[in-house]
Automatic annotation (TrEMBL):
A GO term for molecular function: oxidoreductase activity
Organismal lineage: Bacteria, Bacillati, Bacillota, Clostridia, Eubacteriales
Pfam families named in the record: Aldo_ket_red
InterPro entries: AKR, NAD(P)_OxRdtase_dom_sf, NADP_OxRdtase_dom
Domain (NADP-dependent oxidoreductase): residue spans on this chain: 13-266
Species per Swiss-Prot/TrEMBL record: Candidatus Gallacutalibacter pullicola
PANTHER family: ALDEHYDE REDUCTASE, OXIDOREDUCTASE, ALDO/KETO REDUCTASE FAMILY PROTEIN
Name the UniProt record assigns to this protein: Aldo/keto reductase
Signal peptide residue numbers: none
Length: 282
């Protein structure tokens, strides 16, 4: 799989998310199978957060990766904004590491911006790096103006990535945030790349442009959504599934590379932004 370099790391263009996983004992075996199917098929990158299932997603991911060589995986987790200051971040990070059964995170993200000054969060992130608890840090749900502010604080330029919502039905970042990151060689890790299975945008999976494109590649509409996100330079997609069959379908989508003509067709139903729209979040 194509890799992107950032902040001293190499990250693959596709990983798996874990929101809503690890919340039900009944589903645990299926979810473990889904994550491990991903690993067997070459997925090495996983996204999680202390928020997801109150630590349940981190615990599930820790179980899933236990039989595998940790050094070949990349784990991203996130700290709540209210824990992202000097008083709590070190303990939050320790708690995530314990739940994941690992002694370092590849990337630790500020989940969204809260009241802790960015400069304080960055100082703490740099300390976690120096302690070997994290290899790199980044942010999530920060729009262009926040990124400008981040870049201006001491060591703010060490930010590895910005994780934001992006899918065919929500293309706002193409206007300015995506170019901002591309100019700096900073990946955008796109969440909800499947628009939560189409639920975030009515008519997305059933649109004639999506169906026609799917037909062209003998692919499913879900695979086209994923290929759309990866069409842009410097994006990383982290779709989530609790089903091994769905994970197979997601990994198989990597065979689809959309063309400029495909994007033009898709843009008829879901146009690119022509003006600034504020970040979409869930
Ligand atoms: P996604 O866009 O990845 O969609 C997930 C949904 O798609 C699930 O309901 C899943 O159902 C379904 N799905 C997956 N594969 C298939 C398939 N092959 N066919 C049909 N349906 C499928 O939504 P998420 O919100 O989970 O976003 C992805 C990840 O991004 C999260 O898990 C999380 O790690 C991260 N995230 C980060 C946020 C942030 O604020 N930083 C916010 C939101 C997400 P099923 O399980 O049945 O396959």
């Amino acid at each position: 799989m194509e890799m992107l370099q950032t902040a001293g790391l190499k990250l693959p263009r596709m990983g798996l998310g874990t929101w809503y996983l690890g919340e039900s004992v009944r589903k645990e075996n299926a979810e473990l199978e889904a994550l491990r199917t991903g690993i067997e098929l070459g997925i090495t990158l996983f996204d999680t957060a202390e928020m997801y299932g109150d630590g349940g997603a981190e615990r599930l991911l820790g179980k899933a990766i236990k039989p595998y060589d940790r050094s070949k995986l990349q784990i991203v987790s996130k700290v709540y904004p209210h824990n992202a200051g000097r008083n709590h971040i070190f303990q939050s990070c320790e708690n995530s590491l314990r739940r994941l059964g690992t002694d370092y995170l590849d990337v630790y993200l500020l989940h969204w911006r809260g009241s802790v000054p960015l400069a304080e969060t960055v100082d703490c992130m740099e300390e976690l790096k120096a302690q070997g608890k994290i290899r790199a840090w980044g942010v999530s749900n920060l729009d262009t103006d926040d990124m400008d502010e981040l870049e201006a604080v001491r060591n703010g330029g060490n930010c590895a990535l910005d994780q934001v919502l992006y899918h065919l039905g929500s293309r706002g970042i193409e206007y300015d945030l995506l170019p901002w990151t591309q100019q700096r060689g900073m990946p955008v890790m796109t969440y909800c790349p499947l628009a939560q299975g189409g639920r975030l945008r009515r008519g997305l999976l059933g649109s004639s442009a999506v169906k026609k494109t799917a037909g062209k590649y003998q692919a499913t509409p879900i695979q086209i959504l994923l290929a759309f996100v990866l069409y842009q330079d410097n994006t990383i997609a982290i779709p989530r599934s609790g089903s091994a069959a769905h994970v197979r379908e997601l990994v198989d989508s990597l065979r689809v590379t959309l063309t400029a003509e495909d994007i033009a067709l898709l843009s008829k139903d879901f146009p690119a932004p022509t003006r600034k729209t504020y970040l979409d979040i869930v």
